[in-house]
């Protein structure tokens, strides 16, 4: 057998080129995740530099416009991202109005029902992804609880508009990059193959209204239980329900529900590691950007894994807006996530049982 010099170049095989390597990574959402991270970091950094971090929630939720339109052709993406951004801004304005008037529990509950209904119906009608109302409900719940001086209503809404505008521009920026690159480097970009199907008849779809009923009943029950137990952030239980329940026409899976519950609980551990050392503001902004990046990287592949990033993202935003003892925040989040997850799991089991009875009777 001939001896082969290990140091000699292997002429029979070519090393993988950079373009081939980039092509192999296109299945991941690096482009989307990078846009989302930058869109939330830039407005927060600006607010930190001018000493107005009390407005961080409006910038952060406006920036969540960048979470929509992934993998869609740009003409279609313009429609979906614009719709998602306008819906988020409308919900923020609605929540600001309630906060400005010092709305009581009954008005806030009615507002929650309205936000759930409108966001679920519009997500289905416009083909938005993610198809659940979690980010819209999260924005409403946080903004509605922040006290708003009457003279600051306009400036706070403008901060949300600015955050949404930056996110919109970044989400659409790939169009220009692709035009500049032309067809010379196709491996640098993802294939834009997702179709956001517009369904004008979704408003008459029984499955959509069944999903609305499941989310409303679960959210109200979880919120009422959290308040009856004296927990400090009842809306976390509501958000846990919305995070676990699938969108209309999706399977009600017990394993998926457990993945989401476990992902949220493990995400709390990550949040504790970040927040307990009491890092400076700039570190918190960096954590928010990294968490946004990780959430977008995994949300299309495994929602439970994405919640490892979504949970510290949510807690860090809340802590940045209204700092409070981290231990209390984490304990409330664990208890209310578990409570909301159990309520949502009960709904999933009831739906599965009803489906089995329907099949047997058929």
Automatic annotation (TrEMBL):
Protein topology in the membrane: Multi-pass membrane protein
- Keyword Transmembrane helix included in the entry's annotation: yes
Sorted alphabetically, the keyword list is: Membrane, Transmembrane, Transmembrane helix
Q: Provide the taxonomic classification.
A: Bacteria, Bacillati, Actinomycetota, Actinomycetes, Micrococcales
Highest taxon of source: Bacteria
A GO CC annotation recorded here is: membrane
* Provenance organism: Cryobacterium melibiosiphilum
Which sequence ranges are marked TM in the entry? 36-61, 81-98, 105-127, 133-150, 157-177, 216-245, 306-322, 334-354
Give one Pfam hit by family name.
Answer: FUSC_2
Signal peptide residue numbers: none
**What compartments host this protein?**
Membrane
Q: Where is the Integral membrane bound transporter domain?
A: 221-345
User: What protein name applies here?
Assistant: FUSC family protein
> Chief localization class?
membrane
Q: Does the keyword Membrane apply?
A: yes
């Amino acid at each position: 057998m001939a001896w082969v010099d290990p140091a000699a170049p292997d002429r029979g095989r070519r090393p993988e080129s950079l373009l081939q390597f980039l092509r192999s990574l296109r299945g991941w959402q690096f482009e989307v995740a990078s846009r989302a991270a930058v869109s939330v970091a830039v407005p927060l950094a600006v607010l930190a530099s001018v000493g107005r971090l009390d407005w961080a929630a409006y910038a952060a939720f406006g920036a969540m416009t960048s979470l929509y339109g992934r993998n869609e052709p740009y003409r279609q993406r313009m429609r979906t991202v614009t719709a998602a951004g306008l819906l988020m801004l409308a919900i923020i304005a609605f929540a600001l109005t309630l906060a400005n008037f010092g709305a009581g529990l009954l008005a806030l509950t009615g507002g929650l029902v309205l936000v759930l209904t409108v966001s679920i119906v519009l997500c289905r009608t416009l083909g938005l992804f993610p198809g659940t109302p979690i980010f819209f409900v999260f924005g409403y719940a946080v903004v509605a609880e922040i006290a708003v001086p009457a003279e600051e209503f306009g400036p706070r809404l403008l901060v949300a508009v600015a955050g949404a505008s930056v996110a919109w521009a970044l989400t659409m920026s790939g169009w220009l990059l692709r035009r500049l690159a032309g067809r010379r480097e196709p491996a640098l970009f993802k294939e834009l193959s997702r179709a956001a199907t517009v369904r004008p008849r979704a408003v008459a779809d029984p499955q959509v209204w069944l999903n609305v009923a499941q989310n409303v009943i679960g959210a109200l029950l979880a919120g009422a239980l959290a308040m009856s137990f004296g927990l400090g952030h009842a809306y976390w239980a509501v958000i846990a329900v919305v995070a676990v329940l699938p969108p209309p026409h999706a399977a009600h899976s017990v394993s998926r529900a457990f993945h989401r519950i476990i992902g949220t609980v493990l995400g709390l551990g990550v949040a504790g590691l970040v927040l307990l050392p009491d890092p400076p503001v700039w570190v918190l902004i960096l954590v928010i950007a990294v968490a946004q990046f990780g959430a977008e990287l995994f949300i299309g592949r495994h929602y439970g894994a994405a919640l490892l990033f979504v949970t510290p993202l949510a807690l860090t935003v809340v802590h940045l807006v209204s700092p409070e003892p981290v231990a209390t925040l984490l304990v409330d989040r664990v208890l209310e996530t578990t409570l909301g997850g159990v309520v949502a799991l009960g709904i999933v089991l009831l739906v599965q049982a009803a489906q089995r009875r329907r099949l047997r009777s058929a």
